[in-house]
Amino acid sequence: MKLLGFWGLILIGVVCSKWVDGLEFDKYSNETEVSVLESAYGVSAATTISPLMVGLILIEEAAAKGAVCLDGTSPGYHLDRGYGSGANSWLIQLEGGGWCNTIRSCVFRKTTRRGSSTYMEKLLPFTGILSNRAQENPDFFNWNRVKLRYCDGASFSGDSEDMAAQLQFRGQGIWLAGMEDLMSKGMRYADQALLSGCSAGGLASILHCDEFRDLFPTSTKVKCLSDAGLFMDAVDVSGNHSLRNLYRGVVSLQGVQKNLPRSCTDQLDPTSCFFPQNSIANIKTPLFLLNAAYDAWQIQESLAPPSADLNGSWTDCRMNHASCSASQIQFLQEFRNQMLNAIKTFSMSKQNGFFINSCFAHCQSELQDTWFSDNSPLIGNKVRRCC
Predict the structure, then answer these.
(1) How far apart are CA 79 and CA 57, in angstroms?
(2) Per the UniProt record, which EC number(s) apply here (predicted)?
């Protein structure tokens, strides 16, 4: 699966031959782990032979501006410099990893790499859209490629603190500090720039898309890509809104409201505006949505979480879609239809694009097997094209 050129096709997926058998989730941080995803999809980072390992760069000066992780440590990113035809092109990948919506879950999170740079890997493999190999990543292999680490728990959008719990909710500041540091390292001279992200990072790429555009002169070609960031305000199997309840806690706890798009908050409540379905149509910058119609994370944690399935009737289905009953498949089909309906207005703009495939998957741009390989998802023998 790949992105060609610097914009492309609009496709709605209807087929997918494989993907998820089961996922596990952290009970406190609502996080999907890359290693778990690899195991669940039957793919592995090992499919990329000796991937490029890129070192962590801490933004030390960010602390003086209050732009810190949950525990007060400095944020960071990984950068591999571009060359040749890609020397003045920049790809920013916003890391994902769920959210924290309560003091308890955020206190737990700050003891992990999702809340503290102390625990971040010092080296990360660059695969998929970040790969430096032309045969694995033909569109972006020689760009300046960056992964901005995620350590705030609110999709890089919070601006608050809880002194009693020693928690800093500074996602917006981390975003700004990261962009400022990268601009000083040459991004300001970019001919073209793409803001991307996976999962919670995919949501962040939507929320910050127009801000990213505003960093550059009008002569710079700027676009955004959201991978698995189209989180839906859906009804769960108990008739409630599990994800809305989670988002309500994130927004109120972390002071997200002030950083949400005004075009949305002027009309809807802040929690509704944290759902991208309510803001994507008003984004001015070209945006491409890459999503699974049967998003594995949303099935697990939004549609059929254990808290909404007290009698356990969805346990087998949520862990393996081959075990779903006819009525359960219909419920999931209705979720797919809701997602497609949510992007109708968005899709009317010729500058936007989307690739919605019928996979049971979550994030498809970071792992080589789902990004660009012999059996990555196709629709009508076409790969996704976005940029």
Answers:
(1) 8
(2) 3.1.1.-
**According to DSSP H, which parts of 90-220 are helical?**
103-109, 171-184, 200-207, 209-214
Would residue 362 show up in a list of annotated catalytic residues for this protein?
yes
Q: How far is CA 137 from CA 61, 142, 149, in A?
A: 33, 9, 21
3-state secondary structure of 315: helix
CA distance 136 to 201: 22
Distances (CA, A) of 46 to 38, 136, 138, 367: 10, 13, 19, 10
pLDDT on residue 1: 52
Q: Is residue 18 exposed (0-12), middle (13-18) or buried (19+ Cβ within 10 Å)?
A: middle
Q: Output the CA–CA distances (angstroms, integers) from residue 41 to 49, 121, 181, in the order listed.
A: 18, 23, 35
Looking at residue 367, its amino acid is L
Task: Please state, in angstroms and rounded to a whole number, the distance separating the CA atoms of residues 377 and 387.
Answer: 17
The closest alpha carbon to 228, from 96, 40, 139, belongs to: 96
Q: What is the distance between the alpha carbons of residues 264 and 330, in angstroms, rounded to a whole number?
A: 31
Instruction: Catalytic residue, from 29, 157, 199, 376: name it.
Output: 199
10-24, 100-114, 151-165, 247-261, range with the lowest pLDDT = 10-24
In this prediction, residue 184 carries a pLDDT of 98
Instruction: Out of 22-31, 107-116, 303-312, pick the least confident.
Output: 22-31
Q: Please state, rounded to an integer, the average pLDDT across all residues of the chain.
A: 89
First and final C-alpha spacing in the chain: 13
Q: Which residue is catalytic, options 116, 295, 302, 358?
A: 295
H or E stretch at 276: none
**Residue keyed to tokens 């594995």:** 296
- Entry pTM: 0.90
Q: What gap in Å lies between CA 243 and CA 252, rounded to an integer?
A: 14
Q: Which amino acid is at 368?
A: Q
What are φ and ψ of residue 87, in 5° steps? -60, -30
Catalytic residue among 196, 362, 365, 376: 362
Active site residue 295: yes
Q: How confident is the model at residue 383 (pLDDT cuts 50, 70, 90)?
A: low
Which tokens in the block code for residue 177? Answer: 């500090």
Q: Looking at the chain, which runs of residues are DSSP E strands?
A: 11-12, 52-58, 76-80, 89-94, 123-126, 144-148, 160-162, 167-169, 192-198, 221-227, 287-292, 353-357
